[in-house]
Structures are given as C-alpha cells and as structure tokens.
Fold:
Amino acid sequence: MYFADCIGFTGNCLPDVEVWADRLDGIVELHSTNNLRNLFLSGEYDDVWPDMPQEVLDAALDDSNQFHLTPYGESTENKVLIILPGNVTLDDYTESDVLYALPLIKNQ
Structure:
C-alpha cells in the first residue's frame, strides 16, 4: 500500500496501473451504471489490480462505501477510482477520512 498525495487528497494511493482502452471504457461504463462493485464481487478486478491489498478490496466490497471516478493527471482519458466512506463526499473529505485511490492510466 502506498501513501501519497496523488490527486490533491492525502490518502492511500495504489501505484498507477496501465489498462487498455476497452478495459478502461468498461470500468467507466460500470461506474456510470452503478455496477462497479460487481467488478470486485466477481473477482474481475484481479486482471487490473492483481496485487490489491486486502484492506482496499474490503473497502470496495463494503456496501456502505462509495466509488468516484474522476480524471487523473493531464489527460482526461486517464482516471482515478476513489473509494470513500458513504457519508463523505469529495467536497467535504478530510484527512481523517479513509480514502483509497486507484489510478488508471490508458495504455498507449
């Protein structure tokens, strides 16, 4: 697990992961249809994040947590998947809140 200020928030940030465009599009689609948790329930996350720490997986599977998918870095094609507690938004996040960030970089 890495501790970094990777998106303007201080939180637990996994290393950047390169993914093919179709895989990234699939993750964006799952997020837009509120089905992203299924990626973690089915175990399909393993081909994107093969060494995901158990605490991050537990957070992704926890129904009380929420997902945010936002642009990452200079390219709008790159995304970062953020896992936050359900009672916290990106606007009222504080350093005492648990945040996990999983950066997704489009493979060129």
